[in-house]
Specification:
The structure is a homodimer. By secondary structure, chain A is of the alpha/beta class. Chain A folds into 2 domains: about 1-170, Rossmann fold, CATH 3.40.50.1970; about 175-355, Dehydroquinate synthase-like, alpha domain. Chain A is built from 12 helices and 13 strands. The first copy, chain A, has helices at about 45-60, 80-90, 105-115, 130-135, 175-190, 195-210, 210-230, 245-255, 265-280, 285-300, 310-320, 350-355, and strands spanning about 1-5, 15-20, 35-40, 65-70, 100-105, 125-130, 140-145, 150-155, 160-165, 325, 330, 330-335, 340-345. In chain A, helix 3 (about 105-115) links the parallel strand 5 and strand 6. The interface of A and B includes residues 82, 121, 149, 235 and 319 of A.
């Protein structure tokens, strides 16, 4: 088992990575305030891992109820969040009860936001079961639900007490979701870690084959990057925004196509190619650089173009993104491969040109 | 104008108390990050003060839109909260836009919770327009909405940047609401400030007559007490719970009668008498002490008995209160007049006896 620490003073917490973690209740017990917990999961992950987690907790004397949500980004909304509150209140959970989110990014975001709001905050543990959530969304305390007018618009910064990334859970992950997770892994290399990018270029096929050591290495190095950024800028006033490479374009794709049609990682991959194209137009990346990024996404089986969506629709959707400040879109672009920057001066025409270059 | 500071490190903020504050946009301007704000108010307060506030802001170059909510505790729910999110998103408000809550406790709680959640947190200013919100709910960062199964169950600790208590707004406050505000003022004297209680005993009629100097004094001393407690214990791990004298009984009254039937301050007054009665049964207060508390509430025109509600119903409603820990109700009681304590050992029979003693 590998362990990393997210250094946030009194709110610091460990990330544990390895196989068989879900079987071991003693990994969780020290982080609970009482012998009571509630597991939030969904109807895909629940049948696979809920009982394993409940048995592990029972073996250390912890009684854990469960709320099973419908699966999918389309359910990342208030009515579904309220299912959690209903259960917590019906079971008379106290504010010292711990909420455990067992699932992918949607479950983690919703479980975390429910924990942030229930009685103004209850303790919370992330048990991510997808590659994407293990390397990104479970770390750093961003929680949210979607609003019909924008993704992740209603939420909170709320840190977990522990993140438990059990590589066993990736055995049941559909190929398409494994690939989507690779998009966020590649992102860390692109924005701030060239040696990791080179490692990914050398080891991508081992990841696609789900080799344990390769997965553990990729997850650890991704989480180490994320933990460093979050420790320096918890509430995204500066550096943390760099983690959003490809995300402003990507959110427009997700919202424009209807949540769930494109996986988040797929939209991020296509969005990253738009950001790379814009970076090339600004003279920061060469043609070869763009091709280097593209070929890694292609090897990972990820889209390198956006969907059928008009340029105007992109601009409209991007204008309501959280990264707008003073009416100006703040885009994350690549100054070079391995170094991202915030750029607020890209004109509408340049953005449109990049989108069109990377559209069907 | 009187000014107090809530000392919370980087999140410290001033409370300004006086007449004519709503007319003066320059009091607000230094606390805005941009020249854009959104005012959240309701359909009772809006017609009285919204235009005044918007003009004051316009005079310092600030454009402020408005969301007008339906009035009342019955609307302190998710669908109403979502009206704020709809407007913020439709107007493409950024996370640097400031939300200004103009109204009583419900508007402040909802506006504050909306600000806490919108894009994971936007700046927020409290402009309380009722006595109760000026002395209590606008200070300290507790925000929330109700859930059908419990009051204030979904919320956040989220501090404002500024609290502006304009005594002018009390001129239009109905008598019943003025009296409800007195309940929370009297509470500060009872739990930790005997000299203030004595001042209230000497000046209650001046408050009921709405004398400016008396109101300013009562508001300042109440806020000073609240600010001290909040600075010492922002998220209610200890001392802050003492502010809930009468509230666990009171919440049961509010929920049991249907939100809005009893004003919060009225329920707190009756609940405080139950807490006083239980304190007497424990041998902490004398009969004379209880009568002293009672006579102040009577002079303030506040109820000193609960409504027609069975003792079992009280216990049931109290069991889902946020003050339950390890299955044990933690009640705030009076060790003596002027000093509250947390008591977790009161048995069900003793609690029932106190409720019955103070029921019709």
């Amino acid at each position: 088992m590998r362990t990393l620490e997210v250094a946030l003073g009194a709110r610091s917490y460990p990330i544990r990575i390895g196989r068989g973690l879900l079987h071991d209740g003693s990994l969780v017990r020290p982080f609970l305030k009482t012998s009571r917990a509630v597991i939030v999961t969904n109807d895909v992950v629940g049948p696979l891992y809920l009982q394993r987690m409940q048995s592990a907790l029972a073996s250390v004397g912890v009684e854990a109820g469960a709320t099973v949500l419908p699966d999918g980004e389309a359910h990342k909304d208030w009515p579904t969040l309220n299912l959690i509150f209903d259960d917590l209140l019906r079971a008379r959970c106290e504010r010292s009860t711990t909420l455990i989110a067992l699932g992918g990014g949607v479950v983690g975001d919703m479980g975390g936001f429910a924990a942030a709001c229930y009685q103004r905050g209850m303790p919370f543990i992330q048990v991510p079961t997808t590659l994407l959530s293990q390397v990104d969304s479970s770390v750093g305390g961003k929680t949210a639900i979607n609003h019909p007018l924008g993704k992740n618009m209603i939420g909170a910064f709320y840190q977990p007490r522990l993140v438990l990334a059990d590589i066993d859970t990736l055995d049941t992950l559909p190929d398409r979701e494994l690939r989507a997770g690779l998009a966020e892994i590649i992102k860390y290399g692109l924005i701030r870690d060239l040696p990791f990018l080179e490692w990914l270029e050398a080891n991508l096929e081992r990841l696609l084959a789900r080799e344990t050591e390769a997965l553990a290495e990729a997850i650890e190095r991704s989480c180490a990057n994320k933990a460093e950024v979050v420790a320096a800028d918890e509430t995204e006033r500066g550096e943390r925004a760099l983690l959003n490479l490809g995300h402003t374009f990507g959110h427009a794709i997700e919202a424009g196509m209807g949540y769930g049609a494109w996986l988040h990682g797929e939209a991020v991959a296509a969005g990253t190619m738009m950001a790379a194209e814009l970076s090339r137009q600004l003279g920061w990346l060469s043609h070869q650089d763009v091709e280097r990024v593209e070929s890694l996404f292609v090897r990972a089986g990820l889209p390198i173009r956006g969907p059928e969506l008009s340029g105007e629709r992109y601009l409209d959707l991007m204008a309501s993104d959280k990264k707008v400040e003073g009416g100006q879109l703040r885009l994350v672009l690549l100054q070079k491969v391995g170094k991202a920057v915030i750029h607020a001066e890209a004109g509408q025409q340049a953005i449109l040109a990049a989108i069109r270059q990377r559209s069907p």
